[in-house]
Specification:
This protein is α/β, with parallel strands linked by helices. Helix content is 47%, strand content 11%. It has a domain at 262-348.
Length: 398
């Protein structure tokens, strides 16, 4: 028990000490934030080719080694954020359960189920959707499932699938945030949530604790989807931290680097550099050094060029563009900033898993202080899903 609290405090200390490397908005910056404090690191970052950037993003050990010269805590951060694989059982899954479930999602569900202990308790599937997880729980654990979902049509579809498969699944149409949902959390029950977003899985943990539920297992996701502007810590340890996280900070763990095809990479480069070029242009026109976000854009517009993008963005933000604007200059400025942001994001990459572990350990410490025995580990490899952490808790004496 002391291990998790100690790990949280160590991680909290290191993240606090290194805020300058991760707690800022790269998009809002015109140049590297470390030019004055770490000029040698900036020179190294600027020397990296696109291929080297890709390699470092894909290899955390290589990234740690490369950045250790300027961030002495890099290796400690890497070590503190390690999460061991959980023991998975070999489960015989009946044929036909995966009907209508995408292959990658089915792999995640199987892996999640295989890592759950067999407690012989009825299940509560929180934020169930169509009850895809509930199917495999009902079929392989021989226990009934209550699937709580707020979208009526998903409940209807899930109920129909359960009947067709002859599975003991009962759907409840309810808002997970509404107090009435408390009645579906029982003391002799195992509550589960696979990738319930932000406050949805936090709400489940809090309600299980309040209702003294026997067991709960969650795989957290989308930490930034919270109802308040600032993250509200759960545990005593996190409440004592000096770290305050806004929604932008909470997105950091989710910004996994995904290998994309050449066309997708090109489109991404165009969109980001166009946005940054327009931002530099509007700062110049309005004599204001604040970043100005613009709405989502139809990708087809990007093929019409930078000038067309600027005309569209200016109209959206009610900005009058002067005649004779040198669009080529501002496009080049956007491309320059794109390169700088990519390199700042490379450094922030070092802090993605550590910040996720900080958030996960806050949940773990909260459950421990609430009289639960907790286990923590990964239920699958990252290529299956980067959100591969599983928190399992059992109430003492249940």
């Amino acid at each position: 028990m002391a291990g998790y609290a100690q790990q949280f405090r160590q991680l909290d200390d290191v993240l606090s000490r290194n805020k300058a490397f991760w707690q800022f908005m790269p998009f809002a910056e015109k140049d590297s934030v470390w030019l004055q404090t770490h000029p040698e690191m900036c020179a190294w970052l600027n020397s990296l080719t696109e291929q080297q950037l890709e390699e470092l993003n894909a290899d955390s050990d290589q990234l740690v080694a490369a950045l250790s010269s300027w961030i002495p805590d890099a290796a400690v951060l890497h070590q503190l954020s390690r999460c061991q694989p959980l023991v998975s059982m070999d489960i015989d899954v009946p044929y036909g359960l995966n009907t209508g479930i995408p292959g990658r999602k089915w792999t995640q569900i199987n892996a999640f189920n295989a890592a759950l202990p067999r407690l012989q308790l009825p299940w509560l599937e929180w934020c169930a959707g169509k009850g895809h997880l509930g199917r495999i729980l009902a079929a392989t654990h021989d226990m009934p499932v209550t699937s709580l979902e707020w979208q009526q049509q998903l409940c209807v579809d899930g109920e129909a699938s359960a009947k067709q498969l002859k599975l003991p699944i009962h759907f409840v149409q309810a808002d997970a945030f509404d107090e009435s949902s408390d009645t579906h959390i029982q003391s002799k029950q195992h509550a589960v949530a696979l990738h319930a977003c932000g406050d949805l899985h936090v709400s489940l943990l809090q309600r299980v604790v309040e209702r003294q539920g026997a067991a709960v297992s969650v795989s957290p996701c989308c930490y930034h989807l919270i109802r308040s502007e600032i993250y509200q810590p759960l545990s005593h340890a996190a409440k004592q931290s000096t770290i305050s996280l806004n929604k932008h900070d909470l997105r950091l763990p989710l910004q996994e680097t995904v290998t994309a095809g050449k066309r997708v990479r090109r489109q991404r480069f165009l969109e980001v550099s166009f946005r940054l070029g327009f931002d530099s242009l509007q700062r110049h026109l309005l004599n204001n050094d604040e970043y100005l976000p613009v709405p989502n854009v139809h990708k087809a517009l990007l093929s019409e060029g930078f000038a067309a993008f600027c005309l569209w963005a200016a109209k959206k933000k009610n900005i009058e563009l002067r005649p004779n604007i040198d669009f080529e200059y501002w496009q080049q400025e956007g491309e320059r900033r794109h390169g700088i942001i990519e390199r700042m994001e490379l450094v922030r990459q070092l802090f993605r898993r550590p910040l996720e572990m900080w958030l996960v350990l806050d949940r773990v410490c909260y459950l421990e202080q609430s009289n639960y025995d907790v286990s923590l580990g990964t239920f699958c490899d990252k290529p299956v899903t980067p959100r591969n952490i599983l928190i399992h808790a059992e109430r003492k004496g249940s």
